[in-house]
Amino acid sequence: MERVDDDVDAFLRGAADAADLLRLDEIIRDALPEEDRVLWRGPMWGGTNQAIVGYGSLGRAEATSSGS
């Protein structure tokens, strides 16, 4: 999967079940007002192409040696 710059609102409005997805998006955004919202596209497990709306960004902490 890759993060893409596609418009999330346009993606949701274009879906077959747009009304439900837009309402769910509203609920999630109300609950997470400070989080980023981004569209991801690409193959998932089994090779099927997917489009996923992500809410929030995760960072990866690098492992450090504590000397123990």
Label this structure with key terms.
single chain; 68 residues; alpha+beta; 3-stranded antiparallel sheet; flat
Write the layout of secondary structure elements.
Blueprint: E1 2-4, H1 8-13, H2 18-31, E2 37-43, E3 49-55
Antiparallel strand pairs: 1-2, 2-3
Care to describe what's here?
The chain is 29% helix and 25% strand. It is α+β, with helices and mostly antiparallel strands and 68 residues long. The relative contact order is 0.23. The model has no long low-confidence stretch (mean pLDDT 89).
What is the first-to-last residue Cα distance?
37 Å
The parts where pLDDT drops under 50 for at least 5 residues are none
The 3D shape can be described as: flat
For this structure, the quaternary state is single chain
The SSE order reads EHHEE
Short structural summary:
The protein is of the alpha+beta class and 68 residues long. Helices cover 29% and strands 25% of the residues. A hairpin with a 5-residue loop joins β2 (37-43) and β3.
